[in-house]
Task: inverse folding
């Protein structure tokens, strides 16, 4: 297809190799962190009536009794303490390697995700209540599509300060652990204390630099009028029927924050569904003209990306019919 350079440019060899190496180090780091979590808590001996006993402390209020001192419990104690020390050392080593990869990514220009967006993603991925339940559905999803296709979108296409987060589960967002008391707004403020809920748009939090995080949810029958969050003053999801088409199988990609300081993963919709969604938004008469223009531009960019660089996403007639007119014409002429 012609004129793709106005939408994106392919990565060069150094950029591709650096990204691949970064993904490998990141995945090794995540695996090491998981191994280290298997050694949570501590083991210690306590004497009672002249006999040592082994305990496993999981938290300040939780501990389990392992048994009296004998060859078996001594072996378990050694295995735990040595294993934990080894796992901790591996995490530290890979964390340093990941820092170096971030610097290399910055040097070759693939540190693409705005820092605050990368930090929010990192926070989401560290919370079991969130990581598998949310998808980035707005224009920031392009960072994941870039890595999938090995390209860089042009500046005009990627300029935005809104981060749209879609919550998947039916009608209520149950937050566990430390999030249970502070909700999503408190979670965002833990990342950047300047985040405040918008006075008019209760689904939006905005930080001191103007970056906005919007909490969105599909508008499913039977779930209307129900809140996702049950904490006072928290974000209240904006339900949109247009999001229903994004509920298919999402994909996950490693993305790199600006300056290479944050490397994490981003979960985004199937790119074909994303194009259809953006085209639909561009046709809404109740949407601001500038946003409609940007929606169509993003839809065309990702549609061209699918056609030229993503053969793993075959196009049915229905998909092509949902593409922007300019892409349909180019496909017909090809």
Result:
């Amino acid at each position: 297809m012609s004129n793709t350079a106005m939408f994106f440019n392919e990565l060069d060899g150094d950029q591709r190799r650096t990204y691949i190496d970064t993904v490998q180090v990141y995945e090794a780091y995540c695996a090491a962190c998981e191994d280290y979590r298997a050694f949570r808590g501590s083991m210690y001996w306590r004497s009672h009536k002249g006999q040592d006993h082994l305990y496993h402390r999981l938290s300040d209020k939780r501990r389990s009794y392992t048994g009296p001192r004998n060859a078996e419990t001594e072996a378990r104690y050694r295995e735990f303490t040595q294993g934990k020390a080894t796992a901790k050392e591996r995490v530290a080593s890979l964390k340093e390697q990941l820092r170096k990869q971030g610097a290399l990514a910055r040097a070759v220009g693939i540190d693409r995700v705005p820092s605050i967006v990368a930090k929010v993603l990192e926070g989401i991925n560290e919370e079991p209540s969130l990581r598998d339940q949310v998808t980035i559905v707005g224009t920031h999803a392009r960072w994941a599509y870039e890595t999938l296709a090995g390209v860089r979108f042009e500046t005009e296409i990627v300029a935005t300060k809104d981060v749209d987060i879609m919550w998947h589960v039916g009608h209520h967002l149950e937050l566990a652990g430390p999030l249970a008391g502070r909700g999503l707004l408190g979670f965002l403020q833990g990342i950047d204390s300047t985040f405040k809920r918008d006075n008019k748009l209760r689904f939006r939090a905005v930080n001191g630099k103007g970056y906005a995080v919007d909490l969105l949810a599909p508008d499913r029958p039977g779930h209307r009028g129900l809140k996702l969050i049950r904490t006072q003053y928290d974000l209240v999801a904006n339900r949109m029927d247009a999001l229903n088409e994004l509920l298919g199988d999402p994909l996950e990609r490693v993305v790199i924050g600006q300056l290479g300081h944050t490397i994490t993963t981003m979960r985004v919709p199937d790119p074909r569904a994303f194009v259809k969604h953006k085209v639909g938004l561009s046709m809404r008469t109740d949407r601001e003209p500038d946003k409609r223009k940007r929606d169509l531009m993003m839809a065309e960019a990702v549609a061209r990306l699918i056609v030229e660089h993503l053969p793993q996403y075959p196009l049915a007639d229905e998909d092509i019919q949902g593409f922007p007119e300019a892409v349909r014409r180019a496909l017909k002429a090809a």
Q: What stands out?
A: The chain has three domains: 1-110, 112-263, 270-334. DSSP finds ten helices and 13 strands in the chain.
